[in-house]
Amino acid sequence: MTIAVLGTGLAGLACAAVLREAGKDVVLFDKSRGYGGRVASRRRDSFAFDHGLPAFDPITTGMPPALTSLPQWSDYGRVAAPRMNALPRSLGESFESRMNTRITAIDAGTLDLTDEAGALHTGFSRIVVAIPAPQAQALLATHGEAFAPLDEATYSPCWTLMLGGTGEQTSIPNRIEPPDGPLALLIRDDAKPDHPAPSPCWVAHARKDWSITNLERDAGNVAQDLGAAFASLTGIDPSAAPYRAAHRWRFCRPERVVRHPFLLSDDTRIGACGDWCGADRNGGDALAAWRSGEALARIML
């Protein structure tokens, strides 16, 4: 029988890889059209942006083999090239995948899956739920006390600004961490190793408190306000950029995590993993997700 993995972020992909290596058949599901979760990139015309995770945090030991060959970006960690989503795409495309498919229900008896269009997906012996904790909680609320700790996990959001074609400004650092103001981090993405672009591409990440306050605002208005903050820090006029957009990450950074490396139903047929799992945060949330997925896969074998 086949194992279904819901979610193609790092936890889901790491879990799927271990399962397949052990000889299991795996089918991936994701509500989005692309692999990676927050390891995301956006391409518009000649511009490209890593508008999710900027890099994999640097660590001295315990780096998964899939990450050790990635280019080193100064002291900031490793990056996939030519964009961050190249890594999850290379891992995910080798599996049978049902993308643009949001699963809304799991039958506790048959393990049949129902998607939001009402279609049924059958033939699974086990289910892995590798999505943000609030979404997993909604899916697993009726599947026993084993998943009660999902209520403990919380996230903070983040708005990101993307600016493409701002013009060359050699006097501006390629990475800026302002001490205050709406923006917490500015990165010139085309300055990362092996990230070619014909003109500068900037990604700016808003602070947690600003993102919370402005969470439900229109993306166009957010882009305008963050663009003004970007201009005050760099002297670059964002209105002249050919491409400008904002993206909201509702579940960006785990704030309170479940200390277990994964959650597992009493009959071991349904498991949950993700960046919201695990007390070991060495290497940041991304590597915590990876470790969580691998740990769940090993217990399910």
Essential attributes:
single chain, 301 residues, alpha+beta, FAD/NAD(P)-binding domain, Polyamine Oxidase, Chain A, domain 2, 2 domains, 6-stranded mixed beta sheet, 5-stranded antiparallel beta sheet
Describe this structure in words.
The chain contains seven helices and 18 strands. The chain has 301 residues and is of the alpha+beta class. It folds into two domains: 152 residues, FAD/NAD(P)-binding domain (3-Layer(bba) Sandwich); 99 residues, Alpha-Beta Complex (Polyamine Oxidase, Chain A, domain 2), CATH 3.90.660. The strands form five sheets. A six-stranded mixed beta sheet has the order 7-2-1-11-18-17, covered by helices on one side. Strand 17 and strand 18 form a beta hairpin. Helix 1 runs parallel beside helix 7. The two termini are 13 Å apart. The mean pLDDT is 96.
Q: What topology does this entry show?
A:
Layout: E1 2-6, H1 10-21, E2 25-29, E3 42-44, E4 47-49, H2 65-68, E5 72-73, E6 77-78, H3 86-92, E7 96-98, E8 103-106, E9 113-115, E10 120-121, E11 124-129, H4 133-140, E12 154-164, E13 175-176, E14 183-188, E15 201-206, H5 208-213, H6 219-234, E16 243-256, E17 263-264, E18 270-272, H7 284-300
Provide a short characterization of the protein structure.
The chain has 301 residues and is α+β, with helices and mostly antiparallel strands.
So what's the overall shape?
globular
CATH architectural grouping of the largest domain: 3-Layer(bba) Sandwich
What is the CATH C-level name of the largest domain?
Alpha Beta
Radius of gyration, rounded? 20 Å
H/E topology pattern? EHEEEHEEHEEEEEHEEEEHHEEEH
The CATH topology of the largest domain: FAD/NAD(P)-binding domain
Beta-strand percentage range: 25-35%
